[in-house]
Amino acid sequence: MRFITLLLGLALANGCAAAQPIVIKFSHVVASHTPKGKAAQRFKELAEQATGGRVTVALYPNSELYKDKEELEALQLGAVQMLAPSLAKFGQLGVREFELFDLPYIFPDSAALHRITEGPIGRDALKKLEVKGIVGLAYWDNGFKVMSANRPLLWPADFDGLKMRIQPSKVLDVQMRALGANPQALAFAEVYAALQRGVVDGTENPPSNFYTQRMYEVQRHLTVSNHGYLGYAVIVNKKFWDRLPSELREKLEQAMRSATVYANAIAEKENADALERIRQDGKTAVHHLSAAQKEAWQKALLPVHQELEGRIGKELIQAVKREINRPHLR
């Protein structure tokens, strides 16, 4: 009888263990109410619903677990299973194709951008992550960037000598130097304090990040330049992903597709709303470039494309431009 009781106990214990949900730790560095934060929440809801609770997505926003420089290593080591880092991060891994997304003034609008992220060029870039132990699932928009500082940035000469915070990115480094600024690479979580203390003079961000990180409290001027794009790749640890049952992967992929549609739909509105809130707050003067000023910015920045052809790939940059400029039915 004791032996039978022991077997029943083991069976029950195994049954309880089998019933434990698979946990996906999803870490990111921005606030929960940003476009990325909201998209991550939507993915969590869809994934848990689609899998009937067999998968739980644990969200860690605002660098709660890892900062910019730490999160990719944490994913590769399996300390977290999912991230949505900015595309600039992948150049540090040696996957330089992603650096094309940092090129200034390469995407005239969101429609042109999506021809790349949703087409073969974008898919091929994600596939190149697999040799790094990473599976790329989707691209999520944040939006086009603005510039900020404590003086108006209307002409390239206005950047002269400014210390401008950038993400660690060779392209962004060259971009700021082309404007006459001194680029300073800092983790996103450190930017507010660096601006407040004068460690850096200004930065670039989509309006949603500028607003949710309260940078309007420590920056007196903002220029709606739309000079560059900030987007993310949603990625998972490859060993973890490959070990999932195939039916769960399929459900998670469907949840990710739906979350991506949502993410990219809200990004433009979220940034427009954030810009309006910044205006209403009144601490930061919002400037829009005139046609002549924008032309001057482009004249200063477009040579960055040619300068970085040897790093990113001349053929890749040309292929992107051909696809963007190809006539499309509307």
From TrEMBL:
What are the GO cellular component annotations? outer membrane-bounded periplasmic space
What family, per the record? Answer: Belongs to the bacterial solute-binding protein 7 family.
Can you name this protein? DctP family TRAP transporter solute-binding subunit
Q: Does the keyword NAD apply?
A: no
| Annotated TM spans | none
Question: What are its GO biological-process terms?
Answer: C4-dicarboxylate transport; transmembrane transport
- Recite the lineage of the species: Bacteria, Pseudomonadati, Pseudomonadota, Betaproteobacteria, Burkholderiales
What InterPro entries does the database record attribute to this sequence? DctP_fam (IPR018389), TRAP_DctP (IPR004682), TRAP_DctP_sf (IPR038404)
Which keywords appear in this protein's UniProt record, sorted alphabetically? Signal, Transport
> Signal peptide span per the entry?
1-19
Domain of life of the organism encoding this protein: Bacteria
In its UniProt entry, the species of origin is given as Noviherbaspirillum sedimenti
Keyword Signal assigned? yes
Coiled-coil ranges per UniProt: none
